[in-house]
Amino acid sequence: MNDPTQLRVQxxxxxxxxxGWKDFEDxxxxxxxxxxxxxxxxxxxQARSYSGIDRRDAIFPNRNHQGLSNWAHLYKELDARMIxxxxxxxxxxxxxxDEVNQTRNYLTTPMGKLAILCTNKxxxxxxxxxxxxxxxEDKKVILFLTPDELIEMIAIKERGEDPSNLILDLVELFxxxxx
Length: 179
Known about the structure:
Layout: H1 4-13, H2 21-36, E1 44-48, E2 55-61, H3 70-78, E3 82-88, H4 97-105, E4 114-119, H5 125-138, E5 141-145, H6 147-158, H7 164-177
Parallel strand pairs: 3-4, 4-5
Antiparallel strand pairs: 1-2, 2-3
């Protein structure tokens, strides 16, 4: 789907919780594909590790190793070869440190050190503190994206600008806030 208006509607219409998890995941995936494919490659959906223990919601291959693009920069800075995206559409449960830790576990050496957690609401303080600890220990960056930020990136693309600028902005904001 390449209709930005429809993507916005989909993102805003998702019900929180179990009843809306599939709609949320589908809306996020459609939006991410619209925003980033290309330059990223089509995602591997529900990708499992060989043993089957780990199942990642989506992994976008980043084959932008050279040049001046934002994705080439992230590849060089964070070894972002494969970028896992996790989708959390919670109702009453907060998005906390457990969700961040789960995402951390997906950042193996071949994957790289960048993951993105798409959430229907802002993560709690414990989630922010946990991702700081993860960066301090492993230099892994976990970003949080909400539907509002996805919608902002749609607007950026509609203006003819690069929506991955917002990803770089979020990485830089993370570095500024890290302690």
